[in-house]
Amino acid sequence: MSSVSVNADRLLGRLRELGSIGRDETGRLVRLAASDTDKLGRDRLVDWLKGAGLEIAIDRIGNVFGIWAPQGIDAATSPLMLGSHIDTVINAGMFDGCYGVLAGLEVIETLKANDFDPARPIVVGAFTNEEGVRYAPDMMGSLVYSGGLDIDAALATIGTDGSVLGEELERIGYAGPHEPGFLQPHAYLELHIEQGPVLEREGVPTGAVENLQGISWQKVTIKGDANHAGTTPVSMRRDAGLAAARVITFLRERAIASNTPTVATVGCIEFEPNAINVIPSKATFTVDLRDPDEERLLAEEAALTAYLDRIAAEEQVTISTERLARFQPVTFDSGIVAEIEAAAAGRGLRSRRMTSGAGHDAQMIARIAPVAMIFVPSIGGISHNPKEFTPDADLIAGANILLDVVRKLTTS
Ligand code: HGY
Ligand code: MN
Ligand code: MN
Ligand code: MN
């Protein structure tokens, strides 16, 4: 088969259209898992999958699959799976996750249009709740799919808004009939924007992702005493807000001092009673710790625990923690990584091996199949932000590399 390329206009048009679905009254893109706007995105994706002539399958956690199983392939043949997610964070960019799902669909449509005859089915999936903003943990749909979380426990998850995931999936019509894991992939490939600064800084258009860092999410609750902001001497305060602030600066100072890839983020914080002239009686915040090395990540978690104990004593507050997610670092399949490098070279494109700083569904599917990821540059390294941007040429180049690797992995 000659060197075939994806239909750039179709892929870019769908990316832009999906990026316009789920904007709130202020124009922010917000398609939180199992929400009404998530439903709008899902419905549009299913339209496209049907239009491509794919069989649609939805599992009990709402993962959506488009299946291309040409005649003559033994039904028992395990599929090559492509995919990512289309749920978003709050005030998201339009490429995170959506690019991998729509490029996977584009690759299948291009192969079908060019009479490619795959030796195995090719499936594109959109996994539920990759972002984990409304329901923790993140990568939940692919975690359940790969057997890392019991389906009924996942469906019972209470969201940050008090909703129940299973009820919401029913409500939006995406509580499907299939058992998660009903299709065991022969291999899994995920195309994604880098969401970091490396490829752009080095002027390299393609990332052949060989591993993905570990992730630790915790919720920390600090309880002190409300008191009068004007009359209470500092020495008499049990200030939950101050204690939280000390933890946040501890995390940053430790990450800088460690001189390692360790990163720490406090993304959510709430004070009670949250009044300008009341010393906070309670502070609730999240801690996101990441490191490519499991031993270092464990050491960072232990250091945080020790510091929380110290702060509890020094500030005379009580501190409790709740684990929200914990994923170990994952190494991807070196053979597929090599195919990605070869495909890039075959298109005259430079590539470089790299680690993923972000979590991805690939991290979960690696539990049940050989996996690798392809990255394209993020301008300014920006993501989880409406300024997220990747030039069209890079988006198309990434999709063509995905196309070439898929052809290679499904030719006999
Ligand atoms: O948190 C992550 O890295 C992913 O975007 N859910
Ligand atoms: Mn993503
Ligand atoms: Mn994301
Ligand atoms: Mn991700």
TrEMBL record:
Zn(2+) 1 binds at residues 85, 96, 192. Transmembrane segments: none annotated. Binds 2 Zn(2+) ions per subunit. Belongs to the peptidase M20 family. Keywords: Hydrolase, Metal-binding, Zinc. Its cofactor is Zn(2+). This is N-carbamoyl-L-amino-acid hydrolase. One of its GO terms (molecular function) is metal ion binding. Pfam families: M20_dimer (PF07687), Peptidase_M20 (PF01546). InterPro entries: Amidase_Cbmase, Bact_exopeptidase_dim_dom, Peptidase_M20, Peptidase_M20_dimer. The keyword DNA-binding does not apply. Zn(2+) 2 binds at residues 96, 131, 384. It comes from the Bacteria. Residues 213-314 form the Peptidase M20 dimerisation domain.
